[in-house]
Design brief:
Layout lengths: L1 H15 L4 E7 L3 E7 L10 H6 L2 E11 L8 E7 L5 E4 L7 E4 L9 E5 L11 E4 L3 E2 L8 E5 L3 E5 L8 E5 L4 E5 L7 E4 L8 E4 L5
Parallel strand pairs: 12-15
Antiparallel strand pairs: 1-2, 1-3, 3-4, 3-5, 3-6, 7-8, 7-10, 9-14, 10-13, 11-12, 11-14
Bound molecules: 2-acetamido-2-deoxy-beta-D-glucopyranose (3 copies).
Keywords: Signal
């Protein structure tokens, strides 16, 4: 009975959630000092000495680093493990002044994040994350989306959930979409044939 309970607990731990995480080590082979980040860091300047010392790291989730603050400018790294499996590497980090995971800390619940984009990187700039059934009045036309929790979303051309629409759907815990000029000003959770949406298979672009 106890064994069975442990098994069930372990199963739910895996099935019900993980926290996006970036662990940095000052020596190769995950040795030396370890610094664990679970938050978005718009200005990591205070840690620049630490980042210069990094020689190995582990990650879970979908992380991107930038050479300027506020997620603008060039990418310095992209680390992706959408399933929540921890991946470890011997790696140094180029000079990085901001980094973040995409979307919510726990990507197992349905959400959609929109990005304002910066030149050369559609997932840079401002990020807004929605977990409700519908969202509009974005401050910008998104250049990219991140979907979490194996969810589907319908994006509409107009701000009032009307106009032509596209269904975005992923079977993964984290899926990403580049908009390529496709205009979405409002969004609802789920896809429904009544909207006669175009279909965008997020997982095919992964
Ligand atoms: C990192 O380097 C150490 C020391 O050379 C080695 O033991 C380890 O297997 C390496 N790890 C990876 C993931 O390559
Ligand atoms: C980063 O963005 C915040 C909030 O928009 C702003 O207050 C801050 O001045 C920005 N910092 C830099 C260095 O651009
Ligand atoms: C979507 O609707 C807008 C406004 O009615 C129109 O300008 C645009 O060409 C339409 N796009 C497609 C792919 O039908």
């Amino acid at each position: 009975m106890l064994l069975r309970l442990i098994y069930i607990t372990a199963f739910f731990n895996i099935a019900l959630g993980y926290v996006q995480e970036l662990s940095l080590f000052t020596e190769i082979g995950l040795e030396g000092n370890e610094f664990i980040f679970r938050s978005k860091e718009p200005d990591i300047t205070a840690y620049s000495a630490l980042l210069r010392d990094v020689k190995s790291l582990c990650y879970k989730g979908h992380w991107k680093g930038y050479s300027a603050t506020n997620y603008t400018s060039d990418l310095t790294f992209t680390y992706t493990s959408v399933s929540g499996t921890q991946v470890c590497l011997n790696r140094t980090i180029p000079e990085t002044l901001s980094f973040r995971h995409h979307g919510p800390s726990d990507p197992t619940a349905p959400s959609v994040s929109i990005y304002s984009g910066v030149p050369g990187n559609a997932h840079g700039g401002m990020e807004r994350t929605f977990t409700g059934l519908a969202a509009n009045n974005f401050d910008f036309v998104p250049t990219a989306l991140i979907l979490t929790g194996r969810s589907s979303w319908t994006g509409f051309f107009n701000n009032d959930f009307s106009g032509n629409s596209t269904c975005y759907s992923t079977a993964e815990l984290i899926g990403w979409v580049y908009m390529y000029g496709n205009v979405v000003r409002s969004i609802v959770q789920g896809c429904n044939p009544i909207h006669e949406s175009d279909y965008f298979d997020v997982d095919k672009s992964l």
